[in-house]
Amino acid sequence: MEVEATSDDCSWLPLILDIVKCMDKDSTDVNQDLTKLKTKIQETREKILAMPEIESSPGEQQEQLRVMREQVDTKTQLLKKYKGLCVFDSPK
Q: Source organism's superkingdom (predicted)?
């Protein structure tokens, strides 16, 4: 499952600003704005939990990263080696 977040999805600042403004005015809209903020926080939690590899510990993620970097280095070296052999030239 691919999770894509836009800046609008993760921006809580406008909601917090609305809450502060309502509190300054002693408005009754504070509860409505607080409900919106709680909903936004819950949606963000769900998105975070839906992210791939979120269940892995930081140590496991570091190990996966190290292995992947080694694979990239190995493949880069192989590409350089094969490129130098001119294997990709078409026969005439």
A: Eukaryota
